[in-house]
Amino acid sequence: MPATDTRSEAMKALTSWWEDMGIEAESVVPEKKAAKPALRQPDPLKDQPKPAIATPQAAQAAGFGQAEGDPMDARKAVAKANSLDELKAAIEGFDGCALKRTARNTVFARGNPQAPIMIVGEAPGRDEDEQGKPFVGKSGQLLDRMIRASGLDPETDVYISNILNWRPPGNRTPSTEEIAVCLPLIERHIALVHPKVLVFAGGVSAQALLRATTGIMKLRGRWSEYRIKDAEGEPGEHVDAMPLFHPAYLLLRPQEKGRAWRDWLEVVKRVEGA
Questions:
Q1: Is the alpha carbon torsion for 48, 49, 55, 57 positive or negative?
Q2: Domains parsed from the chain with CATH numbers
């Protein structure tokens, strides 16, 4: 008889004797210990530490990017600026947005302020932060190529700026608090330039300046009206505004370049017909 059968018969006999003696067999038979799982060998490809993701929440948890200022303070800081030189000096002296403390430079604008088209993007990136000018990196180079392809010159026929004048760390999306604090700065900027046509490059600038809740997919390619704000923030005369895909988005999804190109041509036609 196999050894396993001998042990089984012996266990049955033992438990029967225990039951005859009034002893519950389950209370004395030790429970079978679960086998320990085998240790997994580390995989050098899968077990690498996950990189930190730059988000507004992560930045705030680390003590950065918290918008300590107040939009009213920003509006007061630029209310008396009656020229672009005065506005630039006022923005450089404004300390109400914590992004300024982590940025290398204040990024103001480039191009011709007398041009009929003003393009407003989101925020400076690494290249913009280093050079102190908006849209000078890869996305800016794509934007310049599109402008030139339509027969315009990016240095003389357009004027370019951003909602935020300082780079968010890690090129993360700016928080709603940071946008709110800096919004009076770009509103004063637009008022002083007073372009014939505004172009919002990307969903962040379009949503913030149009006070829209829909995304760029629905906003792009549709004419909207932007109301010029006075020094107190009160709306006045309207300017035609066209939301476009941000050039950085087009670098990731080049199949959308066709739609962006058609939207840009609508801007050129509107200016030429003005």
A1: positive
A2: 67-273 (3.40.470.10)
